[in-house]
Amino acid sequence: MPDDHAKADTGLPGAWAPLGQYAGGVWRTGQDAPRDVVSPGSGDVLATLRDASSEDLDGAVAAARRAQTTWADLGPVVRGKTLKEAAARLRAHEDELAMIDALDCGNPIKGMRFDVNLGATLMEFFAGLTTELKGETIPQVGGKLTFVTREPLGVVARLVPFNHPVMFAAAKIAAPLAAGNAVILKPSEETPLAALRMAELIGDLFPEGLLSVLTGGADLGAAICAHPGIAAVGLIGSVQTGRAVLRGGADTLKRTQLELGGKNALVICEDADLDRAIAGAVKGMNLGWTAGQSCGSTSRLLVHEAHYERVVAEVATAFDKVLLGDPTLETTEMGALSTQGQYDKTRGFIQRAEAAGARIAAGGLRGDIPDRGYFVRPTLICDVDPDFEIAREEVFGPVLTVLKWRDEDAMIDIVNGLDVGLTASVWTRDLDRALRLTRRIQAGYVWVNDASDHYLGAPFGGVKQSGLGREECLEEMLAYTEAKTVTVVSGG
Ligand code: NAD
């Protein structure tokens, strides 16, 4: 173990301390300036890591190129079995990984146990899809055969955000590995610990160098995007970073998958089952999972005017009841925001909304929040116009904005009036209206009388500036392959 990575006594499970950078199958001390990994629930420093250097990146890419052909040649069945074994090892370390995430990202441990299992489930899902890397045959004249095969791209990188550290670490390496690629994973510089622990747990299952986990911030991400030895980049992150990734990959024409942000609408219609719709509006915020820091959170609530006051009152009551606390405790219902930056940003949005004339119906900057850590109470903001900042910009925190509507066309204009379109949710008992609204709403994923849940195999992704491509489905794996067309002319 590199000797400058001594662990502070911060309660990481099993006295575990990160070993540094997992580059090309070996652990190396990064070479850039040290960076503290802070626990958002307490403000304690969990570890100090040096970012991966450009030499670490070059070494990881070179090792990945060597390992990739070995891995691809093992074939779909062995690759699938190996990924299933990796998923089993993650499940066997559920408690430990969930505790690392609770400490590192501030989400409650219950939700992070779910995330360990969700990451493992997505790994198993792609493990089971390796034999679906199928091509096709094209009708030909006699004596000729034309067929298409799917080949891995080579070395691909996955850049992931801070909000679901272990889940994204596990889930996002799975599809490209299943397709026969080598993967360089860059977790968020804010929450790198679970990805590093994952590398310790599963790294030896793969040919040496096939999987690297490099930690660092935007500079490392930019170096990955520009690296000529990397064929593709898949980003889960903000719209702004999505633009940077496209620009950064332009010179090397990187294949790019982007899962970006949203300001997702939840629409309550006049005929909705109101009790269920109100519960859905609370559930759609993912407060207990990530304190609202989920891309799919339905953070714009559009309520038909007939129900506006009741919905505001009942959602506010539900928000007020949420028990904030230490993310490592089983009883905690909502944890801390993941970073000081998220905390400051969220409070800034609330302050500006109030200054612009909005009413804070629950939460806000007051309240009985723990006195340490980055806690913001679930906040309900109402009496806003559609052009308020709080009605248009992604907060990525526990802040729900309520708008009133009367006319369906005007409501649709509000829903579709942004440059993003990730998810949406519609609450109605009228099937015709439900289907009409799902057609009219510009979003990559629309729930009817439901919110938040993802379903295995169901494509997830955004329209407009919420992203490029679809994930959590066959399309994600195929995105990390290239079609090769072969024509064979037989002699006879
Ligand atoms: P972010 O965009 O700041 O960071 C995401 C990753 O990109 C991190 O690893 C970061 O270090 C890296 N990065 C940052 N700048 C970069 C650059 N210039 N070049 C290359 N890499 C760079 O996102 P975040 O703050 O960690 O996460 C929050 C955002 O992620 C929100 O906008 C949220 O909606 C989005 N998100 C989307 C999904 C989805 O599936 N659509 C899921 C989760 C989060």
Instruction: Classify the fold: give the CATH topology of the largest domain.
Output: Aldehyde Dehydrogenase, Chain A, domain 1
Task: Look at the structure and give the CATH class of the largest domain.
Answer: Alpha Beta
What characterizes the major β-sheet? Answer: 7 strands, mixed
Terminal CA distance reads 63 Å
Shape by Cα distribution: globular
Q: Mean pLDDT, as a whole number?
A: 95
Q: Give a list of the ligands.
A: nicotinamide-adenine-dinucleotide
> Which strand order does the major sheet show?
14-15-16-13-12-18-19
CATH architecture of the largest domain: 3-Layer(aba) Sandwich
Rg (CA only): 23 Å
Strand content: 15-25%
Structural class comes to: alpha/beta
Helix count, DSSP H or I runs of 4 or more residues: 16
Number of domains: 2
By CATH, the superfamily of the largest domain comes out as Aldehyde Dehydrogenase, Chain A, domain 1
